[in-house]
Structures are given as structure tokens and as C-alpha cells.
Specification:
2 domains, 223 residues
């Protein structure tokens, strides 16, 4: 029995609605989903989601035609610091669907595919809080953290004392990926997908990111 199978087995046993058992079934071997949430604040117990987006990755292709985007009407008040980050105000999400109406569509989009994110644990904590109330589970999907992939490719062989920068902007600059409108859920999911594809390509070819500026960069296809 594979080590990662037991948590899925027990999670599936707790599932309150068998219609969502597909979450525990692996997706296509060459597919993953990049995901991002914007929120009312940074407290995973009290703040809430105001927008969520996801984009399908198939091999080295980012399929922007197959994406999920939704504003969400939050139960918590938007904090001023959060508004400064993503620009969404109460009026912008007042007519949006509540998370209970958004989640079924999101879950059908992601299926059992691995989820790719930048500091993904935060986004998953925000989603899992609602999933536990509704379905009795947390998302069972494998999770891929792009900052960890980036660290391994750039700093995995670094000597002690090396200064480490895992910021989104530093990662994208190293990978020669375009900086889109950061802190928009879809743009962040798309940039995360680009980073994942590029880092996966580097790892497959055994290439490390130099700790000096890169001259060349791996290619990826968006479409």
C-alpha cells in the first residue's frame, strides 16, 4: 500500500456526499491545476475568500482556455490592508456568489489533480475550512509548492550563509517569466503555472538556476 494512500482512504471514509468521491481519484498523469485565492485578510480562522482562480496545466502547456474564475461574497469584512493588496472592495463582491455556491464548481474543475501554488498552504487552509463544514474533509489533492521547487533549483546546492530570496518577483525574474497583475487571483494562478512549468523543465534536464542572473530560460507554452 502506497504511503500517501492511507490519508486519502480515511478522508474518503469521512466524505459526507458520495457525489464528490472523484476528489479521491487521481487525475490524468500529466495534468495539474495552479490555484490562487484572494482574501479579506491573513487570518485563516476568521478571514474569508473574495476571489478564487485556477488554471489547467497539461504537460508543458498552460491551458488558459480551461480555467476557473469566480468572485466570492465573503462572510468576513474586508480589511483595509487586504484592499490595498488586491483592490477588491465590499461593493465589488457584494453581488458575488457565496463560497458554498462556488465550491462545487471549483471542485469539479480541479478533480483529483495535484494542486500547484505559491505558499499554497494558506490558500488550502482558507478552502479547507469551508470543505470541512460542508463535506467533512479537507482537499485530498497532492500539493506542489513552487517556492520549494524554486529553492531546490537555485539554493539546493548553496553553501551555508547564502542569502535566500524566495519572493514571487525574484522567482519570475530568474525564470524570465512575465510579471502580470500581481494579487489578482487569475493572474497569480497563471504566473504560478508558468513558474511550475519552467521549474519542472529545469529539474527534468538537471539544470540549476545560477545564483547570478540567468542568460537563457526554459520555454513554456500558454494557450
Amino acid at each position: 500500500m502506497a504511503p500517501g494512500w492511507l490519508p486519502s482512504l480515511f478522508g474518503g471514509a469521512r466524505l459526507r456526499d458520495p457525489a464528490y468521491r472523484f476528489l479521491f481519484e487521481p487525475g490524468p498523469a500529466d495534468e495539474a491545476v495552479a490555484i490562487d485565492c484572494e482574501t479579506t485578510g491573513l487570518d485563516t480562522r476568521r478571514d474569508d475568500i473574495v476571489s478564487v482562480a485556477a488554471v489547467l496545466i497539461r504537460g508543458a502547456r498552460i491551458l488558459t482556455s480551461q480555467r476557473f474564475q469566480s468572485f466570492v461574497r465573503p462572510q468576513a469584512k474586508l480589511k483595509p490592508d487586504a484592499i490595498k493588496v488586491h483592490g477588491l472592495r465590499e461593493a465589488d463582491v457584494a453581488a458575488a456568489r457565496p463560497i458554498a455556491a462556488v465550491l462545487p464548481d471549483l471542485l469539479r474543475f480541479i478533480g483529483g489533480r495535484p494542486l500547484v501554488g505559491y505558499y499554497l498552504d494558506f490558500d488550502m487552509a482558507m478552502l479547507d475550512r469551508h470543505l470541512r463544514r460542508w463535506l467533512g474533509i479537507r482537499l485530498p489533492n497532492p500539493r506542489i509548492e513552487v517556492s520549494a521547487l524554486y529553492y531546490e533549483r537555485k539554493y539546493g546546492d548553496a553553501p551555508p550563509g547564502t542569502q535566500v530570496d524566495l519572493s514571487f518577483s525574484a522567482m519570475l525574474a530568474d525564470l524570465k517569466a512575465p510579471m502580470l497583475d500581481q494579487h489578482d487571483a487569475y493572474s497569480d494562478a497563471l504566473m504560478t503555472a508558468m513558474a511550475y512549468v519552467a521549474l519542472s523543465d529545469l529539474a527534468a534536464r538537471g539544470i540549476r538556476i545560477p545564483r547570478q542572473p540567468m542568460r537563457g530560460a526554459p520555454s513554456f507554452e500558454i494557450g
